[in-house]
Amino acid sequence: MRYSRGFTLIELMVAVALVAILLSLAVPSFRDTILKNRVSAATSDLVAALDMARSEAIKRGVEVYLVAPSPGLGGNKGWRIQMKKPSPPLPADPPADAGVLRVREALDQVTVTPTGDTIITYGAQGTVTATVGSATVAYPVTITMQSANCPAGLANGRRKIEINKVGRLTTTVENCS
To answer: Does residue 76 surpass a pLDDT of 60?
Structure first.
């Protein structure tokens, strides 16, 4: 009687089939996790930028602007924090004397509303005003973020940032719509 060391072809095929079944169950939920994490990271980045703009306005005692050229916060141009008051239509690149404090490149595969030239202004006391295009936005200023290909009903796949008149931020998690 011969003893062999290793696997037979049948044992190997059974093992590969089991791995394939397990992966087919795990991959869809992993995809959803990636979508949620992408939106969560983008939301955290925007909240950090808003916090920075507010703290700089209070620290310096002047107005500070978070500027997102058209097509807006979620567009292909990203956003920037600057000291000089911008005037629509917003250029993709800021003027040399804009006093830019921070630049954020465009978000990858994340949809953000509002769209259009967006300016969020923080006053010296931390109060906020916002305009999209030439229209002033009512309070609270609401910004929603979700993955560009977020399936309807995906739990916790969408984030909403609300900014009240005194500049306080609240972030809520919602299902994709």
So the answer is: no
Got the DSSP string for 127-142? -EEEEETTEEPPSSEE
Sheet holding 118-122, edge to edge: 100-104, 79-82, 64-68, 118-122, 128-132, 135-136
**pLDDT for 16-57, tens place per residue?**
999 999 888 877 778 888 888 888 998 999 999 999 999 999
Q: Do the Cβ atoms of 106 and 76 come closer than 8 Å?
A: yes
Residue in 46, 24, 34 with CA at minimum distance from that of residue 151: 34
β-strands 110-113, 100-104: how paired? unpaired
Residue 95: count of CB within 10 angstroms of its CB: 11
List Cβ neighbours of 100 (8 Å cut-off, separation of 6 or more): 80, 81, 82, 83, 94
Model confidence band, residue 100 (pLDDT cutoffs 50, 70, 90): confident
Domain span at residue 64 reads 9-174
Closest CA to 115 of 97, 134, 133: 133
Residue 77 maps to which CATH number?
3.55.40.10
What residue has token string 């940032």? 161
3 lies in some domain: no
Residue 2 lies in a domain: no
Residue 73: predicted pLDDT: 61
pTM of the model: 0.79
Q: Is residue 122 in a domain?
A: yes
